[in-house]
Amino acid sequence: MSDIDIRITGRAGRITLTRPHALNAMTYAMCLAIEDAMDTWRDDPEVAVVVIDAEGDRAFCSGGDIAELYATGTKGDYDYGRRFWADEYRLNAKIFDYPKPVVSFLQGFVMGGGVGIGCHGSHRIVGESSQIAMPECGIGLIPDVGGTLMLALAPGRLGEYLGTTGTRMDGSDAIYAGFADHYMPELKWPDAKALLEDTGDVGTLVGFHADAPASALAAQQDQINSHFAGESLGDILRSLRADDGAFATGTLKTLSRMCPLSMACTVELVHRLRGPSISIAKALDLEYRFTYRAMEHGDFLEGIRAAIIDKDRSPKWQYADMNVPPVATARMLQPLGKAALNLEDKQMTTLKIGFIGLGNMGAPMAANLAKAGHDVAGYDSAGVSAEGVAQAASAEEAARDADVVITMLPNGQILRSVAEQIIPVMKPGAAFVDCSTVDVESARAVAQDAEAAGLLAVDAPVSGGVGGAAGGTLTFMAGGSDAAFAKAEPLFDIMGQKAVHCGASGAGQAAKICNNMILGVTMIATCEAFALADKLGLDRQKMFDVVSTSSGYSWSMNAYCPAPGVGPQSPADNDYKPGFAAELMLKDLGLSQQAAEAVDADTPMGQLARALYAQFVEQEGGKGMDFSAMLPRFEKRTRDDG
After folding, report:
1. Boundaries of each 6-phosphogluconate dehydrogenase NADP-binding domain copy (predicted)?
2. Distance of CA 164 to the CA centre of its chain
3. Residue-wise pLDDT tens digits, 309-350
4. pTM for the full model?
5. Which one of 1.10.10.10, 3.40.50.1980, 3.40.640.10, 3.40.50.720 gives the CATH number of domain 349-505?
6. 100 noted as active-site residue
7. Taking 70 as the threshold, does the pLDDT of residue 172 lie above it?
8. 490: which of 29, 88, 109, 475 is 20 to 30 A away, CA to CA?
9. Half-sphere exposure for 203 (CA within 13 Å, toward CB)
10. Strands 456-459 and 474-480: what pairing?
């Protein structure tokens, strides 16, 4: 085809993009042609190396050709774009995992889809003209084509910065950030390619390498780390707004042009990927969740209209005030169920799941599993049900013949009782996953009984509250064997945004109670500080602006501020109706002190926090209120009331 030249020359499979007039933008047909060639060459003994390059001086590949995406999307045809992205992502994964060396020569602009073609191979060559970027937030998309993988692996908080700002990297920056491997003067590229064709040996490239100039990004790393270390887009913006320096001012100006929803999701994606379970498949799956919804529910079509079609550079973004609610981010990144990205042309394995405990947390968790395409039967002693979940007559009925049984129960005593009922009827090899928050001793006792019956046992309490359960953004803290965690992990990915394997049975509960002891203590301190600020005549918003961007930073302040009308939306803005009830915090603090007594740990702050929440819940009307309602409690009190 005229847009691409695919051939075998000597020992090299050669792919050359030949659309210099269009900055070598990637069309759907080009994508499929590259995939066909690489599939053919994978097992061809005559092809020792694959070389990808492009004609023209201005660009290796400036991105995907989005004209057809816009044309189909504005007519309500979202399937074309979804099919294009799915096929493109499959190619990106093949390049990343290719068993033979893939050498790319990246001159000029390398953006968006160009990163997916050129930056996943084994040998990524840059030179004097290279300009690499992921500018998708500027058109209502997110860094995709596996770009979030590299952003998550970049030094410090560089990933959040590059992903949200779309900053262009020269060759030195690209090597520093992990988007390229070697710097080579571009005059040497023809000779290097010729030698690859002659020998098929990537070792010959060493003789052409040169030292890269100093990286400007490396010099900015400390400032980037400082401002982009927050948990959300809001945290990043607050940090930048509190600094009147040139870097912060310039960065804020750049971010003001970007799509807020895209930036919020980009930050969230990088955070979800960063960690030991990172992989190209996980990155592409998360990216596809967004791009699948980008035209129908996101700002992609509006971004293209403003930038490419009408060229008015005045997009009408959702959340134009930059206050993107967490639920909006969660909605764009929820699992797609049967529509999920399929890199291997295999259908999702449908599991039979029993879910016991359909309360405020359990019901939405079970519903999300059903929406993802699993066969879920639920049971709750109160007779409640969940959307899409078949109702079982008993716990035993829900558990019988299930591949996985999940429990979400009030306490350890009830967990033990339910376990006695269901373990005998569960089939060998099934997984028993308890997501309740209970004492460590009960978690370990149930796991021991389950394992003795030939089951895989996981204790996996959650963090994130009712909103996280509904939005599929919970964090799971899991204890159990490697095999048990591996069985449960795909389900954690449906119900939440992160799962951490903390160790053997009971480790998940240990992590949860330690985490919530910190949360209880910091919320009390945050509420005390706001009450003190009131009495000192300090405006609450001013206090928030200072604390949220300085050493007083905490999740209780920045993400769950207890002061109404200050910071992101929280239960404080809804008359303290519970996202996490005060009595549940009291329960968790009680578990932490029970555990502390068992191992003779000195936890005076945790002990005091438990006493204060006990007083609040049992004597001061705090039951049924959010745990952040400690603020109005402190507002009314004086030192003599202590």
Report:
1. 352-503
2. 14
3. 999 999 999 999 999 988 899 889 988 888 889 887 445 578
4. 0.80
5. 3.40.50.720
6. no
7. yes
8. 88
9. 2
10. antiparallel
